[in-house]
Structures are given as structure tokens and as C-alpha cells.
Amino acid sequence: MELSCFKAYDIRGRLGENLDAAIAYRIGRGFARALGARRVVLGRDIRASSEELAAAVSRALIDEGVEVLDLGLCGTEEMYFAVSHFDADGGIEVTASHNPMDYNGMKMVRAGSAPLDTATGLAAIKTLAEADDFGPARPDGQSREIGAEARAAYVSHVLGFVDVAALRPLKILVNAGNGAAGPTFDAIAAGLAERGAPLSFIRLHHEPDGSFPNGIPNPLLPENQPVTAEAVRAHGADLGLAWDGDFDRCFFFDESGGFIDGEYIVGLLAAAFLAREPGARIVHDPRVIWNTRDLVEAAGGEPIQARTGHAFLKAALREFDAIYGGEMSAHHYFRDFMYCDSGMIPWLLVAELMGRSGQPLSALVAERRRAFPSSGEINFTISDVAAARARVEAEFAAEALSRDEMDGLSLAFPDWRFNLRASNTEPVLRLNVEAKGDAALLADRVARLRALITA
């Protein structure tokens, strides 16, 4: 039986169609067998189906003789942290992040919190799970709950990224989207208070609720942004934050409620890390690059481009020992966080930058927005992706100064650039356009590309 829930670097499927408890059990046994695992960290998000799927995975691991370290409800990054902190052989987070209600999935890592993809074990797990030939259960597996111990260690580690003495009084609006972020954020906020941080918080949609009464938490979608923006304005907050379901992505709103596109946060954080460690390497994805590369090179750093997707960014961080990596989709990766992504570290760093500069977030990014305006990611659901790309190539390829096919099609011109790529996880074509200091040129090129793609 072919398992179609296996994707490029994680597992994702529609419940009852290509993912259920029985399949989760087979994946769990395949994971343990493929990795030769004796100790595995297991966590889950708040989705209604996650508890059942996690229980099936736990049974499978125990039946393989594994010691399961159970985190319970947590974010994906807490699983990453616990794998390294407890010297486990791998970790699994049952989550579908921002996917629709009838989906769920798993994010997996091996020892050292290193990513899994088809080349580093995911294909072997798939083969074993499809064969479903595991034999009898072993008698020596067990499970123990480590949630409280793990979270305390995680909070201590995360707070090590921020200089509390540099913080100034800020009122911060946080929107957990009824996902897993609330309890973890509260633990971090308590740790900040103990250290004397002058921050106050307004909590919105804070309680975890797997029915998602306020909609699936995906703040990248423009239609989901007004609720946070309006709350920032209503409360007179200095900063707004929102997370997706497993909070491995963090989204920023300035003091006026304006949404800050991810590439400008990547540039801010890259510059901040280079101030700490001159000459360091910074990894970025291929979609929107000019602002990041300009800042990194001006600060004496070395920009490294990697394919879009968490497994590829993490692999590049490890290969080049980069101090930081960022994607415009709001994934931020840190060398000193097991080369993994975190949705909690970025806002701590931005709050510190605001404290050190005395400037609001809008001022910190205003010049960069003028210098390198970008379109934001525009998604197209179309029947023939190849034909759409061919139309775009026929129109623009001949006059391009450079061409890059690391991830989709990137064409660069003297004053503008675009990336067109198929999604790794959805039947969607994604377009990003950027320009050098010319918002009118940007708008014109977006209109031309839109017409070609939808023709």
C-alpha cells in the first residue's frame, strides 16, 4: 500500500483518506526501525486528531522497544530542542500547522535535531511503513512524560538569545490563534518577568482550542491579518505578534498594525547577528533576496542561498555553519538553536533591537522597504503549472541578466527580479517579485506576470 502522506520533508495528509491512526502506527514503527532509535521525543499540537495520532505513534515506538519521551502539547521547536537536550535518537511532532481542519501530519528529525528528508531517512521510513512487516512487539519499550522538565530547559535556552538589560518598556499584542503557542509563550513571559524585563502583553485567542473557533491560524494569509492589526491599534500596542498552529513561524505587525513582510525581518535579524559576529554566514531562500543580500554584504557577512523549505535551510546552515538563516515565509533558523527554526526567538530579538535603537518597528524597516519594495507572495491555483511557466519564460527569459533554477524559476533584470515556483506542499504556483527602489515598476511587473500566469 503506497502511503501518499509522505511529502518532500514531512508527512501531511487528509484524515481518513491518506492518514489515520493505523497509518500513524506504521510510520512510528518505520521511524524507529529506520533510525535504529532507542529513545525518541514525541510531541503534538492542539488539533482534535493529534492526540489519537500521537497515541498511535507512541504505541508503535514502544512496540519497537523505544523509550518515548512524551512532551504532550507543545510546539515543533520544543520537540527539536528536547531531541538534543535529552540526547534522543530522533523526534516526532504530530502537527498539521496551518493546513485545513481535515488534515494532520508529522514533522520529524533524527539525532542532533537534524532534518529528515528523502535522502536522510524519510524514504526508508516510507518503505518500511508501506511494507508493514514489523513482526511482534518487543517487551522493553516504555513512555515517560517530560513536558514540564523539557519546557523549563527550553525557556532557559531561548531566553539566552536576548539581552534583557537592553529591553525598554513595550506593550506587545500576541495572537496565538488558539494553537499551541499560548502555554509556551506564557512560560517565556514568566521567565522574562523573573529577569525584570519591562514588557507587558495583551493576549488574543490565547487558549489552545483544536476546533479553531477563530479560524485556522495562518497569519501569512492577508485575510487573517486584520484581526491582529486591529487589536494592535485598539490596545495602542508597540508591537504585534501572531503565530501559526505549531508556532514555528512568527509574524510581525508594527505599532500602526501594519504587517511586516518576512524578508524585512530576515534582513533585520541578519544585520543584528552580524553585529554580534562579524563575517558570519547568513542563509536565505531564493524567493526574495535583494534586501537580505544587500544588508549582509554591507555588514561584511557572507550570504548563502538555499532551496525553500525547512529541511534545505537547516542542511545549509549545518553545511556552512551559518549563524542565522531566514525565509520570507517567516521561518527563522538559528545556529545556537540546533540549526533549527523557532517562532519564539525572533520576537525576542526584535524587541531587543527596538530597545537598543529606541525606534518603533516601522522605522526599523521603512528605509529597507523603500530601497527594495516587494510584492509579497502571490498564489495562483491553476490547472497547468508547466504551461504557465512556459508563458512567463517566453516573455522574459531572453532579456534577463541572470537565471537561477535552484527553486523554481528566478530571473533577474537591472532593476527588478522575480521567482516563480510550485509549492512543495500544495497544488499552487507561487510568485514573488522585487524591485530596486521603484514601487511603480514593481506594480507594473506584477500585473504583467499575473496576466501571463492566468492567461
UniProtKB/TrEMBL annotation:
<dbReference type="InterPro" id="IPR036900">
    <property type="entry name" value="A-D-PHexomutase_C_sf"/>
</dbReference>
<feature type="domain" description="Alpha-D-phosphohexomutase C-terminal">
    <location>
        <begin position="377"/>
        <end position="450"/>
    </location>
</feature>
<dbReference type="Pfam" id="PF00408">
    <property type="entry name" value="PGM_PMM_IV"/>
</dbReference>
<dbReference type="Pfam" id="PF02879">
    <property type="entry name" value="PGM_PMM_II"/>
</dbReference>
<dbReference type="Pfam" id="PF02880">
    <property type="entry name" value="PGM_PMM_III"/>
</dbReference>
<dbReference type="InterPro" id="IPR016055">
    <property type="entry name" value="A-D-PHexomutase_a/b/a-I/II/III"/>
</dbReference>
<dbReference type="GO" id="GO:0004615">
    <property type="term" value="F:phosphomannomutase activity"/>
</dbReference>
<dbReference type="InterPro" id="IPR005843">
    <property type="entry name" value="A-D-PHexomutase_C"/>
</dbReference>
<dbReference type="InterPro" id="IPR016066">
    <property type="entry name" value="A-D-PHexomutase_CS"/>
</dbReference>
<keyword id="KW-0413">Isomerase</keyword>
<keyword id="KW-0460">Magnesium</keyword>
<feature type="domain" description="Alpha-D-phosphohexomutase alpha/beta/alpha">
    <location>
        <begin position="261"/>
        <end position="368"/>
    </location>
</feature>
<keyword id="KW-0614">Plasmid</keyword>
<feature type="domain" description="Alpha-D-phosphohexomutase alpha/beta/alpha">
    <location>
        <begin position="153"/>
        <end position="257"/>
    </location>
</feature>
<dbReference type="InterPro" id="IPR005846">
    <property type="entry name" value="A-D-PHexomutase_a/b/a-III"/>
</dbReference>
<feature type="domain" description="Alpha-D-phosphohexomutase alpha/beta/alpha">
    <location>
        <begin position="6"/>
        <end position="133"/>
    </location>
</feature>
<dbReference type="InterPro" id="IPR005841">
    <property type="entry name" value="Alpha-D-phosphohexomutase_SF"/>
</dbReference>
<protein>
    <submittedName>
        <fullName>Phosphomannomutase</fullName>
        <ecNumber>5.4.2.8</ecNumber>
    </submittedName>
</protein>
<dbReference type="InterPro" id="IPR005845">
    <property type="entry name" value="A-D-PHexomutase_a/b/a-II"/>
</dbReference>
<comment type="similarity">
    <text>Belongs to the phosphohexose mutase family.</text>
</comment>
<dbReference type="GO" id="GO:0000287">
    <property type="term" value="F:magnesium ion binding"/>
</dbReference>
<keyword id="KW-0479">Metal-binding</keyword>
<dbReference type="GO" id="GO:0005975">
    <property type="term" value="P:carbohydrate metabolic process"/>
</dbReference>
<keyword id="KW-0597">Phosphoprotein</keyword>
<dbReference type="Pfam" id="PF02878">
    <property type="entry name" value="PGM_PMM_I"/>
</dbReference>
<dbReference type="InterPro" id="IPR005844">
    <property type="entry name" value="A-D-PHexomutase_a/b/a-I"/>
</dbReference>
